[in-house]
Amino acid sequence: MNDELPIHLYKANAELQLRVTRLLQESGHRWIEAMQQLSADGVLETTSRIQGLQQAADWQALATLPSDVFWRLCQGRMGDAQAVGQVAVKSQTAFADGLRQALADWQESVSKALGSNAEAPSVAQLFQQWTQPPAASAAASPRKART
């Protein structure tokens, strides 16, 4: 193996870590934007309710105001729930796609660092020990019996 292998592996790992961090930040940013929009919509709804209260000129209009507000709030919350669901799907999809690409790029970087000659082990071979089930490694090393 060449002397620059450790630095190339370190750089590949650092890049992967930074890309995952960026993906998490972007996901958080999408959630913040969505919540800001929902909050702004809530402020508009409250302003509308205040105006309705101020415009009520008689007892009959004031008596119907709570039921009108209730149904508008119910309809608004259903819309909010749908909006949150859409944000969740978009955010998770973008994160998964970005993570998939980051891992593919990392694997390519590690493969390049290891070289493509026949003597160099593949990435799959290097990480084979971590893909084995725990029972396989426990069977390989028998325990001493207590006396």
Structural notes for this entry:
With 147 residues, the protein is mostly helical. The chain has one domain (5-120). The protein is built from 5 helices and no strands. It has helices at residues 5-55, 59-114, 123-126, 128-131, 134-140. Helix 1 packs antiparallel against helix 2 (59-114). The longest helix has 56 residues, at 59-114. The two termini are 47 Å apart. The mean pLDDT is 79.
What labels would you give this structure?
147 residues
Write the layout of secondary structure elements.
Layout: H1 5-55, H2 59-114, H3 123-126, H4 128-131, H5 134-140
Helix pairs in contact: 1-2
Task: Give a brief outline of the structure.
The chain is mainly α and 147 residues long. The protein has helices spanning 5-55, 59-114, 123-126, 128-131, 134-140.
In the predicted model, the low-confidence regions spanning at least 5 consecutive residues are: none
Helix content: over 70%
Order of helices and strands: HHHHH
The separation of the N and C termini measures: 47 Å
Could you give a short account of the major beta sheet?
Answer: none
Whole-number mean pLDDT: 79
Mass-distribution shape: rod-shaped
**Class by SSE composition:** mainly alpha
Radius of gyration: 29 Å
* Count of helical regions: 5
How many beta strands in the DSSP annotation?
0
- Beta-sheet strand percentage? under 5%
How many domains? The number is 1
